[in-house]
Amino acid sequence: MSGDVQVRIRERLGVRLPRATRPVVGFQHHHEALEFLDDLKARLAKFALTLHPEKTRLIEFGRFAAERRARRGAGKPETFDFLGFTHICGTKVDGDGFQLRRKTQRKRRSHFIHRIGQELDLRRHEPVDVQGRWLRSVLEGYYAYFAVPTNLITVRNVRHHIKVRWYLSLARRSQRTRLSWRRMNVVAAKYLPTPTVLHPWPEHRFRVTHSR
Questions:
Q1: pTM value surpassing 0.85
Q2: Is residue 124 in a domain?
């Protein structure tokens, strides 16, 4: 929403606001977040709009969230989903210091695996080489977005599930199939790329963009 005119035009033309209007806003102090929320509600009310009550929330998140909540006995910090990732307050591998952890949303991961399984059923009788090249391109596209630091285990898990779905699909091509898991591992190694981290840590990217 870039301005009043844009909102009025959308209302006049009967165009629904896009589902992408789900911002995540961060504040250092709790009172600032409350003031922003009140101002946002008042702003939207001018155009007869409201925030979704089940999708709008204030959470304590960040470097000191876990420590402060532990002192209050409030449990672990809440997580939030944004742009296909679940964002988590974590610690570094050595346990020294805060680290933002991102993992693929569970619904996104399950939907992707299910959709690939359905497509494999449709492609079941295509040559293995054709199926393999298609799967390679699909996984490479998936890695290009989700292969971020702290998410590698989840991405590897997706590859494993795709391999299992592919094996089951190939095994159904004939009642006399001789496809063993040993042979399947060789086929998977040939066509299914092994995921690696393809994106830098957020602070490294920020340092390059805003170097001094």
A1: no
A2: yes
Taking the C-alpha atoms of residue 52 and residue 49, their distance in angstroms, rounded to an integer, is: 10
Domain end residue (candidates: 39, 58, 77): 58
- Interval 86-112: pLDDT, tens: 999 988 877 678 888 999 999 999 999
Domain that holds residue 64: 60-104
What total number of domains does the chain contain?
Answer: 3
pLDDT at 164: 96
pLDDT of residue 205: 62
Cβ-Cβ contacts under 8 Å for 103 (sequence gap 6 or more):
85, 86, 88, 150, 151, 154
- Quote the CA–CA distance of 172 and 121 in Å, as a whole number: 9
Strands of the sheet with 98-104, listed across from one edge: 80-82, 85-91, 98-104
**Are 31 and 6 within one domain?**
yes
Question: Is 149 contained in some domain?
Answer: yes
The residue ranges of the chain whose pLDDT is under 70 are: 1-21, 95, 175-176, 202-212
> H/E element holding 90?
strand 85-91
Assess if residue 198 is contained within a domain. no
Question: What confidence score (pLDDT) does residue 12 get?
Answer: 44
For residues 84 and 103, the answer to whether their CB atoms sit within 8 Å is no
Residues 95 and 117 in one domain: no
Inter-helix orientation angle 181-191/128-146, to 10°:
60
| Identity of the residue numbered 136 | R
Q: How distant is the alpha carbon of residue 69 from its chain centre?
A: 26
**Does 162 lie in the same domain as 145?**
yes
Residue 141 to residue 144: CA distance in whole angstroms: 5
